[in-house]
Amino acid sequence: MTPTTPPPPGAPRAEAVVIGASAGAVDALSALLPTLPADYPLPVMVVVHVPPDKKSVMAELFRNKCRMTVREAEDKEPLVPGTVYFAPPDYHLLVEPDRRLSLSSEEPVHYSRPAIDVLFESAADAFGAGLVGVVLTGASSDGAGGLRAVCAAGGGALVQHPDEAAVATMPRAALAACPKASVMYLEQIAARLRDLGRRP
């Protein structure tokens, strides 16, 4: 597979992207998000496992790196194309059926809040086959059930190659849960995401 492999012929048109990462997230996301253009036609939602008692610097960090608008997600705000939304610390990030974002303080999932599964599963319900889920490096199984939900809804599933991940536990769990997912290196994932934004 080459870095410029396009989405499979006949694949549904992407409407949104969800990304989950944990240990090693900053480096992995730095290989993806800054490569997307300012006019990227999809919203991108990101969950990174961050300590609940500290102010997250993820949005601020990537705001300075990216051409897209980057912000910390707020409750009840509508999704806007060309924007990266980071889940705030100690809140689950969900997508409502009307495709607005919502924040929840429900119990942690896989010991994490925000949890990747919560975002992926709710976004799969909202977008169905129009969703693309991406699981990156991390040290837990969070994201595996969520990616399975994305696959079950007919969406696209991309997983960072375990050999490249800083911590391979999360990609391996995601692949076990969703064997049909495309296994890619970060350069390839970045190219695929750009291709999704160029599709008519």
Task: Name the descriptors.
20% strand; alpha/beta; Rossmann fold; EC 3.1.1.61; CheB_C; 200 residues; Sig_transdc_resp-reg_Me-estase; single chain
Low-pLDDT segments = none
SSE sequence, one letter per element = EHEHEEEEHEHEHEH
Roughly how many Å is the radius of gyration? 15 Å
Number of helices: 6
Tally of extended strands?
A: 9
Largest sheet: 7 strands, parallel
**Largest sheet, order of strands side by side?**
3-4-2-1-7-8-9
Percentage of residues in DSSP E strands: 15-25%
DSSP helix fraction: 25-40%
The domain tally reads 1
Give the assembly state of these chains: single chain
- Principal-axes shape call: globular
Just give the CATH class: Alpha Beta
Mean pLDDT: 93
* CATH topology (level 3) name: Rossmann fold
CATH superfamily: Methylesterase CheB, C-terminal domain
What structural class results from the helix and strand content? alpha/beta
CATH architecture: 3-Layer(aba) Sandwich
Describe, in plain words, how this protein is organized in 3D.
This protein is of the alpha/beta class. The protein has one domain (16-198): Rossmann fold, CATH 3.40.50.180. It contains six helices and nine strands, in the order βαβαββββαβαβαβα. It has helices at residues 25-30, 58-63, 116-127, 144-152, 169-177, 186-198, and strands at residues 16-21, 44-48, 69-72, 83-86, 92-95, 101-104, 131-135, 156-160, 182-184. The strands form two sheets. The protein has a seven-stranded parallel sheet. Strands 5-6 form a two-stranded antiparallel sheet. Helix 3 packs parallel to helix 4. The longest helix is centred in the last third of the chain and has 13 residues, at 186-198.
